[in-house]
Structures are given as structure tokens and as C-alpha cells.
Amino acid sequence: MEDFLKDLPKKANQKHQENKKFLAKLKKKPPKNLDYLMADLHEKEFRQTDCLTCANCCKTTGPLFTNADIERIAKKLRLKPTQFIDAYLRLDEDNDYVLQNVPCVFLGTDNYCSIYDVRPKACREYPHTDRKKFHQINNLTLKNVAICPAAYNIVEAMKQSLPKK
Ligand code: SF4
Ligand code: SF4
Asked: 29: CA distance to ligand 2 center in Å?
């Protein structure tokens, strides 16, 4: 995994134009069974990719925190939401709450998340490869293939599975 992660930004960069073109085509004409196909590819990939050997998303990006996330996590940590925000979050350029720093402060050295049960929705859903209407998040997917080995592999598998035109 370590070698894969080291090479991933370069590999994703090399595939960027190809992926961009492929995803744009997909958006224009998504196949009827896309949701099923994505669920299948996602499940197959995560049968072989163990997030505990990776944690690259928690180390290099970090989620957006919704109000519901903030309330839930603050409660778990026995803090008031405002205390939680002051201690851990900042507003980004889009006015969304994000972590003050990465790697995420809740990530352990063993790659376990210390707030796993109450983690942000965005963490639960990352890398979004099993969401419905996957073709609607192309820009995000293009970013995620440079961060997440599973997302990279899933997009590669999609290119193999879907008709070329
Ligand atoms: S979701 Fe992707 S980047 Fe995050 S730990 Fe799993 S494989 Fe790694
Ligand atoms: S809250 Fe947990 S899952 Fe989310 S980025 Fe932090 S360590 Fe990772």
C-alpha cells in the first residue's frame, strides 16, 4: 500500500485527461444500470482494499462538517458545539467547516478513527463510489483518484466495464 500511495498522485496525473474525458462522456450519457454497476465495482474493490492500511483520506484531506456532524461529535466529546468548533474546526473559502489541520486529529497512529461511530457523514461516504448518480460528481472524483487508491482502481475498472462509446 505504501508504494501505491507514493505513486498515486503521479499515476492519477498521468490518467487525468483520459479520466476527465471518460467521466464527461459518462455524464452526458449515463448507462441505465450505472448505480448497480457502481455498487458492484465498489464492493469488489473494498473486498481487497483495507482502509486501515491506508487512511490517506484522513491524512491528506479531511471532511466537511455539517451542523448535524458538529452536534453529534461535540455531544460524544462532551463539548458544546461552539467549544468543538473552536478547538478543531475552521471555515474554509466556501464557508464550510473543515478541520484546522491534517492529518485529522481523530486519526490514531494505528489508522483507527477515535470518533468512528459518530464520524462526519462525508467520512462515512468517502470516496463516494457507491453513491447513486455517480456521474454527477465528476470534479470530486477526479480529485479523489489522486488521494484514494480505491477510487483510482474503481475508475480504472469502470473504463474496462463500460462500453467505449
Ligand atoms: S477511503 Fe480510500 S483513501 Fe480513505 S482509507 Fe480507504 S482506500 Fe484509503
Ligand atoms: S473523523 Fe475519522 S474518518 Fe473522518 S477524517 Fe478524521 S479520522 Fe478519518
From this structure: 34
Q: Do residue 13 and residue 39 come from a single domain?
A: yes
What is the 162 CA–ligand 2 centroid distance (Å)?
32
Residue the block writes with cell 460524544 = 76
Indicate if ligand 1 lies below 6 Å from the C-beta of 63.
no
Both 148 and 103 in a single domain? no
**What residue has cell string 484531506?**
61
- Residue pLDDT, tens place only, 16-54: 999 999 999 999 999 999 999 999 999 999 999 999 999
Domain containing 138 equals 2-52+129-161
Given phi > 0 = left and psi -120 to 50 = alpha, else beta, which region is 95? Answer: left
Rounded-to-integer distance, Cα 42 and Cα 35, Å: 10
- Domain for residue 57, yes or no? no
Asked if residue 54 has its Cβ within 6 Å of ligand 1, the reply is: yes
Residues 105 and 78 reside in one and the same domain: yes
Q: Whole-prediction pTM value?
A: 0.94
Helix 149-161, helix 34-48: angle, nearest 10:
130
* The 89-91 sheet, strands edge to edge: 64-65, 97-99, 89-91
